[in-house]
Amino acid sequence: MAKTVAHPIYQLKVTLAGVQPPVWRRLRVPSHINLKKLHQILQVAFRWTDSHLHQFEVAGQTYGTPHSEYPNTTRNEARVRLNEVLLEEKDFMVYEYDFGDGWEHKVVLEKIIPSAPDLSSPNCIAGARACPPEDCGGVGGYEEFLGAIGDPLHPEHEAMLEWIGGEFDPEYFDPDEVNDELAARIRGL
User: How much is the pLDDT for 140?
Assistant: First the structure.
């Protein structure tokens, strides 16, 4: 009978750069997942829609989905495991999503937790604030969006509320919603 290899769990703190007050998530993920799977987890955790290009950057090396039309030094994220780029606590990398809006996330390895049967992963154990909506124009566009929806007298108030679907609470975050979606969408770790 083959033994199952027990892999440590990585506790990551992921913070969206440039947004104040901070938008962040604390996640627990298997240390041996590849960066493509981590991308999928981050998309769920931040409620992004995976509609744009992305990349990881660690110590000057980029990882992403190689494109034959754009030859460069990007390594294939599907062939690189998380525990190959983040080796010890406090190591970090940058995850960039949507090159047009330029959403950069600092991903810090906070803890390495020995594998335990009672640890369910991936999961979100904490976080703060709603993620900015897709295609709002990066940090500056998000600030303008918040100003417009927060001021009923702003000339763009109604248009922005209609664009976002009626309401947006920048303070709202529920880790249970993230965990429900992770359980439904992220399989095969």
Answer: 94
pTM over 0.70? The answer is yes
The domains located in the chain, with CATH, are 9-127+176-185 (3.10.290.30), 130-172 (no CATH)
For residue 124, which of 178, 185, 85 has the smallest C-alpha distance?
Answer: 178
- What's the alpha-carbon Rg for the chain, to the nearest Å? 18
Q: Residue 68: helix, strand or coil by DSSP?
A: coil
pLDDT digits (tens, 9 = 90+) for 149-186: 999 999 999 999 999 998 999 999 999 999 999 998 87
Strand partners of residue 75: 63
- Alpha-carbon span 4 to 113, nearest angstrom: 17
Under 8 Å CB-to-CB from 135, ≥6 apart: which residues? 51, 98, 101
Q: Which two tokens stand for residue 60?
A: 């000057």
Say how far apart CA 11 and CA 110 lie, in whole Å.
Answer: 6
CB contact burial 63-99 (16+ within 10 A = b; e otherwise): bbebeeeeeeebbebeebbbbebbeeeeebbebbbbe
Answer whether residue 138 shows pLDDT above 60: yes
Contacts of 52 (CB under 8 A, 6+ apart): 97, 98, 99, 100, 101, 134
Count the alpha carbons within 13 Å of 131 in the hemisphere toward its beta carbon: 24
